[in-house]
Each structure stands twice: as structure tokens, then as C-alpha cells.
Hints:
This protein has a single domain (about 5-215), classed as MetI-like (MetI-like fold, Orthogonal Bundle), CATH 1.10.3720. Helices cover about 80% and strands about 0% of the residues. It has helices at about 5-45, 50-60, 65-80, 85-110, 115-125, 130-160, 170-180, 185-215. Helix 1 crosses helix 4 (about 85-110), helix 2 packs across helix 4 and helix 6 (about 130-160) packs antiparallel against helix 8 (about 185-215). The model has no long low-confidence stretch (mean pLDDT about 90).
Amino acid sequence: MLTQFTTWDIVRNLLEGGKWTLLLSLLAFFLGGVTGLIIVLLRISPNRFLRVIAKVWIELFQGTPLLMQLFIVFFGLSLLGWDVSAWTAAAIGLTLFTSAYLAEIWRGCIEAIPSGQWEASASLAFSPLQQMRYVILPQALRIAIPPTVGFSVQVVKGTAVTSIIGFTELTKSGTMIANATFEPFMVFGLVATAYFCLCYPLSVYARHLERKYHVAC
């Protein structure tokens, strides 16, 4: 079939989409990590009201589909009079989604630390903040690294959903190219290969960290 697209044109356009997939993944993982850290500190706070807020946050973003969250951010903010681009909506939606899961992962890691560590640090007259900073978090970090790296794979794959609101990442680029070339099998085969190349090294690295730190994810 005659087409204006050469194989190199297809690959080049997919690489451009892959660049935006990678940038969105990094941004969402970083911002989601910062937000998730705040949420997990609220989640383990002695203040019941703060714990409830954190729990509602986690349940809300874990209990609803990412697609619905993107729709609410993209269309909801527009209805309120804020002009939100697909890039901004995708970043916000994926950040909120990521923060909820990372907060729950990290909460589990913190709670995995034996209570004796809290008691021992309290006997040294450490304040709760000092206990968390100098005793609990360093140990929890060792447990948290493998599942955190493993979850980054879900963030990368989650970027594919943002194509629904018009963000031109890898999946959206593949859809447009497939519609133009009428070669969906080849195009989406390349898209799948690109996702594999992004995700597989992260999966391998997560398993390596798990063995290194002797932690069961």
C-alpha cells in the first residue's frame, strides 16, 4: 500500500512520543513521591484528623480508575473556568494517582519496622521527629526501594491512559500514525516494543534490589 510514511518516519515520530512519555513519567513520579511523602506522614500522625484526611486521599485515588481522575482534572477544571492543557491535566492526574500508591507502599514499609526500634529510640530521649528521621526512615528506606522502583513501571504504563484526553505521548503517537499509514500491526508492535524497553529494565532493577536488600516485595 502506498504511504507517505517511511519506516524511519514512523520510528522518528514514535521516539518523539516516547520522549513525552518518559518526561511525564519522571515528572509524575517525582511530584507523586513528594506528595506521597507528605501523605504518609499524615497517615502515621498521632492526630486522628490528619490520619483520616490521608486515608481518604489514599482510598479516593486508589479506589477510582486513573481514566476517571484524568477526566475530572481535564474537564472539571475547565468547567471552573481554568484553561487546562492536556499536558497539565496529565501531569496532575498521574501525580495524584502516584502519590496515593507510593504513600501506601511507604506506610507499609514504615510499619514493618519492629516496635522495639521506636521504644529504643524513645529511651534515648529522641523526639518523635528525631525518631522518624534518624531511626525509622533509614531502615524503612531499605525496605521501600524495591517496591518503589517496581511501582515506577506502573507509572510508565499509566501514561498510556493520558492519550484519552489528547496528550500526545507514545500511545497517542502510535494511534495517529496507525490511522495515517493503515499499518496498525506494525505501528503498535513498535509501540509495545518501546514500552517494553522502558519498563523491562525497571523490573529487572527492582528484582536486583530485592535480592540485594533481601526484601520481599
